[in-house]
Amino acid sequence: MSEYNWQVFQTAIGQTFFIVSISVVVGGLLGLALGLVLYATRPGNLMANRPVFILLNILVNIVRPIPFVIFLVAIQPLMLASIGTTIGTNAVTFALSLSAAFAVSRIVEQNLVTVNPGVIEAARASGARPISILLTVLVPEALGPLILGYTFIFVAIVDMSAQAGLFGGGGIGDFAITYGSQRYDWPVVYISVAVMIAIVQAGQFLGNYLARKALRR
Amino acid sequence: MPQQSEVHVRLEGVTKTFPSAKRGAPAQEVLRGVDLEIRKGEIFGIIGQSGAGKSTLVRLINGLEKVTSGTLTVGQHTVSGLRESELREVRRDIGMIFQQFNLFRSRTVAGNVAYPLKVAGVPKAERDAKVARLLDFVGLLARAHDHPEQLSGGQQQRVGIARALATDPSLLLADEATSALDPETTQDVLNLLRQVNRELGITIVIITHEMDVIRSIADRVAVIDGGLVIESGSAYDIFNDPKTPEAQRFVGITLRDRPSAETLKRLRANHPGRLVTVRVQDRPGFQTTLSSAFLKRDVGAEIVFGGISELQERPVGSLTFVLNGNDTAIDAALSALREDDFAVEEV
């Protein structure tokens, strides 16, 4: 690769890290909140609220099947209203955070369901508030599987971040296409792929390690 | 024995109906009008088969389930009328232990015991001291930093008990607390519960399907069947003289003092004569009076089945005799005994 390509590549790696890390954190937190509300409001659960549950459930079901590229286009009015632009790294990060939040919400909800209802009962019998049970009992009890779920989402976000180039968001995926495949410069493609694989491997390794620690295995 | 007769928990016409799981299916009527009085400082046993409604009953007491109709009071609080936020206050005065222990896997032994104190907003230093005292009380101070899965079932239930006692409750609810334990560990845990009752003066409501549990520690008992209390009284009275078939069945399983239908058939085949079962009574010269009633009338009486054991330091059980002799003499002996308040039953 040429000196110039290296510079662009470094910028691209930086962009990918930016997009992925912001999306994981923002999407992760939003998704956690959404997942907790989904879990808690389900009829029969801690804060059972049928209308809220049905509304959120349908919303999540509507958003989740939309392919990310389409989602990026579809939420352009929302993007414009909230961050003032529909292209660039920030715009892509905004869309990716939102999309990830919906995916995360299902992962959170599914993992909370596996927590033994007996411990929730024990916490209620101790006089704990529902919100405190959610945060100090349910989340810690499901932590191991939750970490694995978040790791899965991390990989999916790295995957989706490769589409950032379509909307001027840059990143490694964009670099591989613009500087690699479109110029028949295969080393650029392979080096990009290698870096993506390295990022995914590192994330998966860290996730597995943390999950093992949480599960004490 | 209850120290005072002040009522701690009172149920009046309590019913509980769960809405049907499927649309169109009938609602599930789990409790159909329960009246109960649990006194301060006693160990009150509630026994029934699975599905009798006893687990639901105990969950009504701390408001984990809501009463459908009727009144339920715990101390000064009318639990049946409280909102969830008010119930949380009441629950701090009611400890609860569970069949599957329900410990938090994400916390250490000490962390589990500390949880209710955290919920109650107790400062850390005070919390730590309290946790150490409680773990010492249940004999697990050395395991404070272990996680629940590193402990045996009996030890886990001890942690459960320490956690339930953390906020100094006046009432402890035990939901099948020993059903997941082996017989030896069961006795250990029951002994600990008795210690909790005697030393700390905590009222205990224990739900079980095992009459042995009732026999070991309960002062008074209610037998529940089909969502109703069908019999209640002191543990001794229930064991000594169970009135309903359900109570008789539970007592029979534990005492094994009455011959089963099959044993009876064998006894009849092996012993010509009339078979009678006499309930053991706590009276001076019980056996002397009994045997002389037969001897006097030249009736041969031989014990062929039975058992005597002790409950609350008084004898319980029954003896089955085969009687040989003149029919009129036997009838005379039996009616003389009945007149003397012996519980005699020809089988």
UniProtKB/TrEMBL annotation, chain A:
Listed transmembrane segments = 12-40, 52-75, 81-104, 133-158, 188-211
Q: What family does the entry list?
A: Belongs to the binding-protein-dependent transport system permease family.
Q: Give the location in the cell.
A: Cell membrane
Name the InterPro entries for this protein.
AA_ABC_Transporter_Permease, MetI-like, MetI-like_sf
Lineage, top ranks:
Bacteria, Bacillati, Actinomycetota, Actinomycetes, Kineosporiales
Keyword annotations: Cell membrane, Membrane, Transmembrane, Transmembrane helix, Transport
Give membrane topology per the record. Answer: Multi-pass membrane protein
SUPFAM superfamilies named among the record's database cross-references: MetI-like (SSF161098)
The keyword DNA-binding is assigned to this record: no
Which biological process annotations from GO are given for this protein?
Answer: D-methionine transmembrane transport
What is the protein named?
ABC transporter permease subunit
- Superkingdom of the organism of origin: Bacteria
What sequence ranges are listed for the domain ABC transmembrane type-1? 13-207
Q: Which organism's genome codes for this protein?
A: Kineosporia babensis
Q: Name one GO cellular component term.
A: plasma membrane
PROSITE patterns attached to this UniProt entry: ABC_TM1 (PS50928)
Automatic annotation (TrEMBL), chain B:
Q: Which UniProt keywords apply?
A: Amino-acid transport, ATP-binding, Cell membrane, Membrane, Nucleotide-binding, Translocase, Transport
Q: Extract the GO molecular function terms from the UniProt entry.
A: ATP binding; ATP hydrolysis activity
A biological-process GO annotation = amino acid transport
Q: Where is the ABC transporter domain?
A: 9-251
This protein's GO CC annotations: plasma membrane
Keyword flag ATP-binding: yes
Q: Which SUPFAM superfamilies match?
A: ACT-like (SSF55021), P-loop containing nucleoside triphosphate hydrolases (SSF52540)
Q: Which InterPro entries does the record cross-reference, listed alphabetically? A: AAA+_ATPase, ABC_transporter-like_ATP-bd, ABC_transporter-like_CS, ACT-like_dom_sf, MetN_ABC, MetN_ABC_transporter-like, NIL_domain, P-loop_NTPase
The record's note on quaternary structure and interaction partners says: Homodimer. Forms a membrane-associated complex with FtsX.
The UniProt similarity line reads:
Belongs to the ABC transporter superfamily.
What function is annotated for this protein?
Answer: Part of the ABC transporter FtsEX involved in cellular division. Has ATPase activity.
Q: What is this protein called?
A: Methionine ABC transporter ATP-binding protein
Source organism per UniProt: Kineosporia babensis
Q: What is the lineage of its organism?
A: Bacteria, Bacillati, Actinomycetota, Actinomycetes, Kineosporiales
